[in-house]
Amino acid sequence: MPNKKLKRVDIIFSEDCVYKDVLTDGLKKSNEAILKEILDSGLRGRGGAGFPTGLKWKFTSQETEEEKYVVCNADEGEPGTFKDREILTRVPLKVFGGMAICAKVIGAKHGYIYLRGEYQFLRADLDKAIEEFHAYLKEIGFDFQIHILMGSGAYICGEESALFESMEGKRGEPRNKPPYPTISGFRNKPTVINNVETLVYAFMICRIGAGKFQELGTTDSRGSKVFSISGDTPIAGIYELELGMLLEDFVEEFGDGDTKAVQVGGASGFCVPRKKFKDTIIGFEGVPTGGSMMLFNSSRSMYNVLKNYVEFFEEESCGQCTPCRVGCQQLKKGIEAIKKGEKSAHYLDTLQKLADTMKVTSKCGLGQSVANSFSSIVDNFKEEMIY
Amino acid sequence: MANTVKLKIDGIDVSVEAGKTVLDAAKKLNIHIPTLCYHEDLCVAGNCRVCVVEQEGVKNLVASCAMPAQDGMVIHTNTHKVRNARRHVVELLLSEHNADCTKCYKNTRCELQDLAGEMVINEHMFLDLVPDKNYTIDKLSPSIIKDDSKCIRCQRCVRTCQELQHVSALGVAYKGDEMKISTFFEHSMYEVVCTNCGQCVIRCPTGALIEKNYLDEVWDAIYDEDKHVIVQTAPATRIALGEDLGMEAGSIVTGKMAAALRRLGFDSVLDTDFSADLTIMEEGTELLTRLKRALVDKDPTVKLPMTTSCSPGWIKFIEHMYPEYLENVSTCKSPQQMFGALAKTYYAQKKGIDPSKIVSVSIMPCTAKKFEANRPEMHDSGYQDVDLGLTTRELAVMIKQAGINFKELPDEKFDSIMGQSSGAAVIFGATGGVMEAALRTAYEIVTGREVPFENLRITPVRGMEGVKEATVKIENVLPEWSFLEGVELKTVVAHGLTNANKVMQAVKNGTADWHFIEIMACPGGCLGGGGQPIPTTPEIRKKRAEAIYREDEGMAIRKSHENPEIQQIYKEFLGEPLSDKSHWLLHTHYQKRKRV
Amino acid sequence: MPEIKELVKDLADKHGRNRESLLPILQGIVTEERFISDVAMAEVARELDMSAALVYGTATFYSFLDTEPRGKYVIRLCKTITCDMKGKRQILKIIEDLLKINVGETTKDKNFTLLETNCLGWCHKGPAMLINDEAFTELDEDKVTEIIGDYMRNV
Questions:
Q1: Do A322 and B68 touch (CB under 8 A)?
Q2: Chains near A (3 or more Cβ pairs under 8 Å)
């Protein structure tokens, strides 16, 4: 599979873009034209799951319900991810622009931003920006309103159906699927829910065109993406990079010269050890990520890393389904017992099988993805788990 | 059929109605898929994950209870992957569960235990999490015990309390490893809005929610030579008890039950049906009196509509939720409590027994009756009127403990006095039954004629519809009831507290003009009570209802006022309905309670 | 007590009285009171005409909707691995020593509560903490001492 060289890109934050112009032009286009543009671009959701954005918009636009909603998922909670905070701080109007264009396509009058409680400090500036945005919409005569709803410290609310539950004033417990949000989302109405970054890309595709966007990246992973880079790196921060690069190149650029592993995609993502850097493509054909890239050098204990992750899941599971609620507790207690010598090393195999079961039986993406980090860390750093 | 979907399960083609689930489709093929959180009466949760199956072309397993059947689906219910996954899920539940089965009240009657048995789990695969949990047991309520260490968090109780009962005394609290089923601020069930209806108890798959049992107390009383132990049995017990003793749902076991109680050693085997008939006399008269005050005296203080008061779950509900309507509730005690007050007065006098030596036991389809018996105001006889309230299930346990072969017992009769009853009393056990019994008597008192329904079957108030309205036009009345001439008596019947709430909302909003409201806290009425044999399903409740109406039609007397023992007690003891003595022993008052 | 009633009523007037209003109202109570007492919760249940157990269940789901008394300033130190790698444990120790409490506790004068929390979204600038809604990043011994010291002097 052909990979791309590491390349920095400047789309999301680019300053040579007047949002008003993009918005006015975008809103003048036909819905079909916009949908075609988004579909052609190959844009996939930037929250991590990677569902084709154009399809979401298309399915929702086809629903005949009167009430529809566009929801911006700003409940960025994946450990190691901070790009949405940066985007909302620097280019909020582009986010709103993406929501407005989506609203036009699907026929929504109201959009909601679900902002995590940890980002309450962004609220005042966002409110001001929304005011400005609403004023402009009024000026151009487009009937659409954006509202902000706050989270209150629950990672699981980033899961789309849990997010709707939370917006409806309930516990953030994921729903059974189907039905999917395009048919039954917020208030059980057809809803497009997109990540902050996805909405900005959708907006920017309206400006630069699908062609320009899909020149970037690979067949499965078109375009670029904003990465949150942290851990053992001298240059931690936010970087917009073309998709499809080799992890080897990434580590070359961002590592500290002693990188032993990279956790791609946060606690729910995959751990790639040094020996696999050269074979690992960052993208949907390789290892996908919602943006989180955590680098670990050889001074770090991967046991501590894994324990930190499973503790996180144990706390942040909504608790409703058995495999996730109890499975996370068992994984945590299990690795502790092995480390202390209370359980033999063979018990790791039992835990690996349990993680596999969690993957196939859990109700939502949280429980299903615990196995990603668990298995990849245990597989690659077995000795560190035992001794 | 246009709205059918075709799928294949384990190689067999099946068609089901669109909207049905994979689980429904499997049932149609008689393929058993294990479930825990699923319950026919409740909305789908899909959270236990025991019912997972494999769908071709889908990477993850799917929860069959929550997955809509779709055209072309190919499902496998018994693959290696499925069995492994289910085994893991049950093992995980067990690791969080206090699996000390021999010390559990639900031992041998537990769905989790059954599942572990099916899977032949000899040794636990995972670490025991119980020692690290801070599980609590709430034993304060006289009705229900909540033991968190047995809870598997399937949320059947939460959904029951919310969907069927509109109470939500129980909710889900916290998240992650700390997630639990909790009352408001983890108060005792005794201190919150819980109505003690026990609908959660009959849906709990494990021993996490159970009735508080009084088995030892009853046995001790029976073995105490010094005590005269009497027992009363509620209408709905006789059509359900058999289910716990190896018989089909819908079996009528009145005679066997009387025989069994005698063999258990009760000194006198009596019938709540007697006091059900008495309730009709008192409550019917109360209704007619209220109507007279409203229609003739134009008394603005009279409270209408009047509601029934037999269901202690309903009483606690209205005390918490609609205290401003407490005066609309009939002041009649429930049949259990009327019986209790008379047992230690009328019965004691007639039999020449010192009431302090009487232990009064009741067998009820109900957990709320335990709370009711323990209400401080229920001491009108000078003693606690009913000493020990047992459920139908507890009676079944006693019968088993005593080694009685229930199925082979002969039919026996109740003792006298307070053992005779009418068909009107037995239908108290079904939703609409009190209304029907009241109408049979009231209509006849007022007009001198039987109610104008074939074979006394007042069908508009029968059946399982949640809210049933019926209007009876009163014509050609006897002279003393002339004020009722031409009146259309408007009635409504509701069962399940969610339906009760709908009725009360209508009353509150002024959108209803009913005179008389019957409410039973439990779905189906007492036959679906929280003290009845487990499980409960719409099908089982239907069979129990059919049995009740069969029992009614088999009775020699079908109307409460024709019960000779009722005529006797008024003549010898009470005087007339609503007499001073009646008020003293048979009527009560209610109290406003907090809504948390 | 009357103030809580007043506060809940004001919040309900502002956010509405349906289920969707529940989170904003609970958040509003926390902003004012730093936690939601049983009295406040019962009041919310009454205003919204809903079950108190469901209010409790919803509140306890969210880490930021504290149901036990908290200090005027709630410090939430990020415990994600990246902050941990940058010295979070030392920072925790320093704050514990400064406030003379352990994590999870509130100072006797009710001014500070010290908690750990999951990822705050400042992984490139760890260790990070929130004091109420304000974020502080790239903490080291001097910086955290100064920040906490400032708060202690200004309470």
A1: no
A2: B, C
Active site residue B168: no
Specify the pLDDT at position C1.
61
Q: How far apart are CA B247 and CA A271, in angstroms?
A: 59
- Count of alpha carbons within 13 angstroms of residue C130, beta-carbon side: 22
Residue identified by tokens 């400005």 is: A132
B154 in the same domain as B54: no
For tokens 């009327």, what's the residue?
A: B338
Region B502-522: what's the mean pLDDT? 97
Closest by Cα among A171, A229, A61 to B175: A171
Same domain? For B138 and B55 the reply is no
Q: Which residue of A has its CA nearest to C135?
A: A121
- Structural domain count of chain B: 3
Does any domain span residue B233?
Answer: no
Q: pLDDT per residue over B256-299, tens digit each?
A: 999 999 999 999 999 999 999 999 999 999 999 999 999 999 99
Q: How far apart are CA B480 and CA A186, in angstroms?
A: 62
From the CA of A158, how many Å to the nearest CA of chain B? 15
Of B566, B554, B309, the residue nearest B456 (C-alpha): B554
Q: Decide if the complex's ipTM is over 0.90.
A: yes
In a domain, B435, yes or no: yes
Question: Does residue B142 lie within any of the structural domains?
Answer: yes
CATH number reported for the structural domain that contains residue B175 in this entry: 3.30.70.20
**Whole-angstrom distance between the N-terminal and C-terminal Cα of chain C?**
24
Would you say B151 and B133 are in contact if contact means Cβ atoms under 8 Å apart?
A: no
Q: Cβ distance C55 to A166 under 8 Å?
A: no
* Contact (CB, 8 A) for B255 and B567: no
Q: Which of A82, A116, A235 to mutate to test the interface with C (most CBs of C within 10 A)?
A: A82
Put simply, the answer to whether A168 touches C79 (Cβ < 8 Å) is no
Active-site residue, from B141, B311, B330, B582: B330
Q: Is B372 a catalytic residue?
A: yes
Q: B185 near B205, Cβ under 8 Å? A: no
- Cα C39 to Cα A230, B550, C27: the distances in Å are 44, 52, 16
Residues in contact with A141: Cβ distance below 8 Å, sequence separation at least 6, in sequence order: none
How much is the pLDDT for B2? 61
Q: At residue A248, what is the residue type?
A: E
Domain C73-154 adopts which CATH fold? Answer: Glutaredoxin (3.40.30)
The mean pLDDT of A139-153, rounded to a whole number, is 97
- Domain contains B554: yes
Summarize pLDDT for B18-29 with one digit per residue, the tens.
999 999 999 999
Ranges assigned E (strand) in B176-305: 180-182, 209-211, 228-233, 268-271
DSSP letter for B313, please. Answer: H
Task: Report d(CA B527, CA B525) in Å as an integer.
Answer: 5
Question: CA-CA distance, B522 to A21, in Å (whole number)?
Answer: 63
Exposed, middle or buried, B410 (CB in 10 Å: 0-12/13-18/19+)?
A: exposed
Per-residue pLDDT for B1 more than 60?
A: no
Distance CA B255, CA B264 (A): 14
Cβ-Cβ contacts under 8 Å for A62 (sequence gap 6 or more): none
Which of B211, B237, B264 is the last residue in one of the domains?
Answer: B211
Q: Which residues span the domain enclosing B42?
A: 4-78
CA distance B531 to B87: 32
B99 in the same domain as B73: no
Q: In whole angstroms, give the CA distance from residue B571 to residue C28.
A: 66
Nearest CA in chain B to C52: B596
Mark which of B190, B211, B232 sits at the end of a domain: B211
Q: What is the set of domains in chain A, with CATH numbers? A: 19-215 (3.40.50.11540), 302-386 (1.20.1440.230)
Residue B64 backbone phi and psi in degrees, to 5? -65, -25
Domain boundaries, chain C: 2-61, 73-154
User: Would you say C135 and A121 are in contact if contact means Cβ atoms under 8 Å apart?
Assistant: yes
